[in-house]
Structures
1.
Amino acid sequence: MEYNFDKVINRKGTNSVKWEFMNDMFGTNDLLPLWVADMDFECPKPVIEAIQKRATHGIFGYSSNDYEEYYISIMNWMKKRYNWEIEKDWIVHTPGVVPALAICVQTFTNPGDQVIIQRPVYYPFTRVIVNNGRIISNNSLKYENNKYSIDYEDLERRAKDSTTKLMILCSPHNPVGRVWTKDELTKIGEICLRNNVILVSDEIHGDLVHSGNKHIPFTSISKDFEKNTIVCTALSKTFNLAGLNTSSIIIANEELRANFKKTSEDRNASPKPNPFGIVATQAAYNHGEEWLEQVIEYIEDNMSYIDEFLKDKLTKVKMIKSEGTYLAWLDFSDLGLSKDELWDIIVKKAKVGLDDGSIFGEEGIGFQRINVGCPRSILEECMNRIEKVLKE
Ligand SMILES: Cc1ncc(COP(=O)(O)O)c(C=O)c1O
């Protein structure tokens, strides 16, 4: 079937963080919101139907995903999309990827140990490290000629430090939109292996890759990487189901998996999956691909729209070429504005809610992240508002 992503759906009255709870972030609820990473699109029809069917039953007691068809839906998806053969036992449920990152930090490091991240990066990476009493080791991404890349020398130096125990990789990368190539991933993996650093690959955006790019699950690269890697996957970004709190963490190494599960059970009370997350997972992985192909095309068109808009009307603002995700990363630094001046323009004058780049680390100062997972008319309104204020 053909989905209509131009349709504007009123999300007010649904407890939407993006549309109704902006106040904490922006100090007002009166903004056009293109910030937090969920989309303003209905999810695939087979998923809606599966949830409706389950809801009709009327009893929502403790539920389990521990049955064959559930695992098979995930295994088939990975095989079909990535030619990645995973085993049923490797799949561990968590109520989200961020909880899984916290479990990794708690399990594979001790207080005072260092954990490598690559800023500017999804800001909860910092939170799960610092709030657990561990130390950030920041292998800043290199930004040259409007493109981001990895500083391997710095990465090796950081990995060599005897107190560095873990690296959290964002693959594809939020917010800079890079889809790392096999060569880049291989170099990272070898550095981690050489220095006994366990790698956690957050692949939550892995299914949302734009044409001409290829997402490679880290573990699929080699048997050696398989032993040293925890891959975090979820259907939350892929099928716009973030509120269902259902993720699949894929851990091939038996010892790492046993330790991960132990922390999850002992310290985090390992909540059972919710009944809607279970049926949604099966429906989305078994029947959601057609929707996904269409949504990616729509996102790519939205990305091109911004790029052309900027080239045409706001030449000092540059868009970083996006290879994946529905998050566009815009460079406002040529305007020479301070962080506060930029905030004033975007939030107070244009009245749009974007993620200010500084929340991803100081490397993000002068940037804004726009969530383009919305109908084109909303994106147009956002860009027009920004243009109007900047021209004034
Ligand atoms: C890289 C990355 N990891 C994790 C998450 C959130 O994961 P969850 O909601 O499953 O905790 C996001 C959401 O934006 C993200 O961008």
2.
Amino acid sequence: MRKEVLNILGCCRCKSELNIDKAKTRKGDTRSGNLVCEECGLIFPITFGRPVLMTSNVIKEWRSPVSEAMGIGEYVTYDQSIEKLLLIGIDEALKLVEERKRLKEDDLESISEIPEEGIAKIRYRASGKWFKSGNRMERLLTFPWKNGDSDNSFNILMKKIAETQPESLLDIASGGGFAVSHQVWFNSGIKQTIAVERDLKCLGNIQYRFKYVGGNQTSEAVGGDVRQLPVRTESIDTAMMLNALPEIFGITSALSEAYRVLKNGGYFIILVSELPFTSDLISSGDFRKFAERADLYSGYEKFQSDAEKCGFNIESSERFNEKSGKFTRLISLRK
Ligand SMILES: [Zn+2]
């Protein structure tokens, strides 16, 4: 982590500035230490060079947002969580969601330590070894992807982000960093890129991708939760998100956080499937009923109306017919 990024990063709870404590630095890069919020007292670790700006209640490996909404802690797939939802019944499950929402601010605690296994995963992926096994290099580290295909929704997303000419770019829920590393590769005008991701092992992938495209000096993978972005208010020119909405519990909080961190006139550009998650296990009507009330992604219309309630203007909303037969939407929101 480079110290310059602290001009943009902030405490995930109170959004105040962070100070470095007990830092070990190599060639201008902070490899370990703590980031301390003097305003509210939370302490965040820097692990293998990555700032982890989350509280202990949100740190996790991926699990279905349906389970998370119901407060079920097991590591389960989407289909397993739908089976559980049907077993409980939608009305009962919604009661669990309401209980879950009452989580108080006071329950937020500092992460005492990142488990050794988690650190090992970040280290392995950041080393590039993960990419070099199997045929991942070809699938995941080809720049540009789909070169020359001007009708491709991903390429149009990349172009649209670049056209906003951001100096500061925030990628929200980066996953492995596929989209954000493309933008860094493609757009040399960006002075600071921050990729926020909650699944810690992914931080290694994202930072390796930044290094691979030569963006290591301007780009940082940061552990963080989209509902409590570890980013200072009005510090970002453009925010982006690729296909992450169906993975999020707390869509409206994520929207209001995106709105908060953007400067006035800033853009939030999203590519997402038009429909919410579908499964043979549940009718789309039943899933939508649950998703709307549980604050999960329930389709682009609801998302756009939530964005407007939050204060965004919908600058454009364009449909793409993907090769998979599904429709996606490229949505450009402006603050
Ligand atoms: Zn704080």
